[in-house]
Amino acid sequence: MFVARFGEKALTAISLVYPLQTLVTSISVGFGVGISAAVAFFLGMGEHKKADQSASEGLFLSIVHGVLMSVLLTAILPSFLRLFTTDEEIYQMGITYGTWVLSFSLVISVYIAYEKIYQSLGNMIVPTLCLAAGCLTNIVLDPILIFGIGPIPRMEVKGAAIATVIGQIVPLVMYLVWHRKKGLGVSIHIKDMKPDPAICAVGIPSSLTLGMPSLLITLLNKIAGAFSSVYVLVLGVYFKLQTFLYLPASGIVQGMRPILSFNYGAGEKKRMKQILSVCTGLIFGILMVGTALFLLLPEPIMGMFSKDGVTIREGAAALRIISLGFVVSGISVVASGALEALGEGIPSFIISLLRYLVLIVPVASIGSRIFGITGVWGAFPVAEVLTAAV
Questions:
Q1: Distance, CA of 231 to CA of 88 (rounded, Å)
Q2: Complete DSSP assignment for 141-199
Q3: Which residues contact 373 (CB under 8 A, 6 or more apart)?
Q4: With bands split at pLDDT 50, 70 and 90, how would you rate the model's confidence at 210?
Q5: Which of 2-6, 165-169, 380-384 has the lowest mean pLDDT?
Q6: Which of 89, 127, 356, 388 qualifies as a cystine partner to 331, CB 3.0-4.6 A?
């Protein structure tokens, strides 16, 4: 919303970088899911030493892939942006924003590893406090660094990037201090820091699963951008808006995973079914609220990001159509999370592959040739219904 005040080019630049940002988070969370499932499973079995080893091995993997992402994604950023824009102003803003946020991928991967370790222990208070502090820091710094307040110079898109980076450093520092002062509940040992096949068996499919939206956004940007750059902006706004629905749903799944893993290790199948039932109901409730908002108030929602009448009209039409698949998508969200909790990374990956690639991209491509841009938006609910059926 702050960046949109500089016009649609600034918002488009950030939207083009967004798939790479999403990829960093996806890989970090994916391996974090592997850590959480392994630690919770061994705790459920009463194997505390193996739980310690899993936490140590998971933290090591997070450091390794954090360094790799920082280097590789920063290196490919210029070529990536050139795939989607020839506008030099958009390109330069994208380089500025992307270089900052991608260079600190290591910070994201490590703090997410800590988050998942705490979650595997059933401790949701520490992750909530740390993440809230980071988000609030980001929100407060955004207007200060973007527009320049008092002695702080006006930095525009660069300011948004720096605010984001600082907002990620804050929770990491808090986790490290908390770990040193209060402990984790499991022990981290340098001698145990090595790759763990069990974590990779869940972490790699989960990372690929969570990384698919990045590929999806990239492909849809190409399809929709062929009609107009307005639709690239609309896609960027939508994928930011949908996080208000799917991140709470994902939060419930993240809370569900370690409890399912623990009860699976303890052989409590009746308890597992109760957990699934409650979580499914909560997620359906969230997605129903989202559907109502997108159907009833799409124009005011789009108006927060643009003052252009065409963008608001086209964006509102897109939100109405896409929202038709929200509720049914809850089936896939719960199923994927439950399978990962049981160590079944491959079936979970297949569900997400259908949702984010195998079904939606061909439907969007074919639909765009028959129905124009409406065919692209219609691919979302069609893919959700077909995946839920599978």
A1: 19
A2: HHHIIIII-TTSPP-THHHHHHHHHHHHHHHHHHHHHHHHHH--SS---GGG-S--HHH
A3: 224, 227, 231, 314, 318
A4: low
A5: 2-6
A6: 388
